[in-house]
Amino acid sequence: MTDGTKLLLELNNRSREVFRRVVEGYLASGDPVGSRTLTRSMTERLSAATIRNVMQDLELLGLLGSPHVSAGRIPTQLGLRLFVDGLLEVGSVAAEDRDVMDAALAAGDQDVTTLLDQIGATLSGITRGASVVLAPKQEAPIRHIEFVSLSPDRVLVVLVFANGQVENRLFTPPAGQTPASMREAANFLNALAEGRTLSELRRTVSIQIAQRRQEIDSLARALVESGFAVWQNDGEQAERLIVRGRANLLEATETQDLDRIRTLFDDLERKRDIADFLELAESGEGVRIFIGSENKLFSLSGSSLVVSPYMNADRKIIGAVGVIGPTRLNYGRIVPIVDYTAQMVGRLLSERGGG
Question: Ranges for the Heat-inducible transcription repressor HrcA C-terminal domain (predicted)?
Fold first, then answer.
């Protein structure tokens, strides 16, 4: 039990209801909720003065805040977290939302990247938020690895997979590398690569590095330690982040926050945080909700993220889908949509043999 959950349980019924109705009112309208508004909706008949006293107590506990001089209150980040963890009522996916998403998922003749792009656009459309989809990693066994020097500071890695797919990746090599040292590094990796996926090869070479650090060529070591190069080709069919619906979040955000939101999307679209994004989902199977500064990706923008991993037939996490929006998201509606989408994407890719 978290400290926040304990705090919520320590509230009496009156305080808990006032808190819940303030949060629900704020999530519905985006405006501070005043005591007079609550007098018309409370289960117990209370005066505005009594409700104000309860709201002041909740403010002292750090659950509510006053954005202006007015008597209205909004939930703090801590308050939103407590509401999401302890009071949020999550229903099932609405029939109309399910129909729209099913239609997007039914486009079985598309390649995986095109399909996921369509799913991202559909998810953004029905949630009115910005969707993010992490496409599955290429996990076919490797047949061959080749290094091609493009310039002193750029090397092209050509990966040939057992299924015939070829990927080109760019990275910056350690200083002083020569064509001969690159051939040696490729020979070293190819001797270990056959029959192994990229992640399996990385683990194998990491063990070799630990055992024979002084003997292993610096280029091979740097390549493995940096995560096997950097994805830079927009047309790749392997792991990439699909960001759709950016305008939705910009439109739903206060003017003074626009620069921070743009910074968030610039970071995401430059793909610098793909690994971090997947890590958000990998710590648990279900939907996870991150509010504001709870994650470094969203600390500057003050946004919220609802994210769920999707899995292949072996129950291995191979990607994630999510919705980004202002902290005033309709969590009760969006959580089941994200969960449903993740389950359906995982099922669809498993049927195709993806991941």
Answer: 114-335
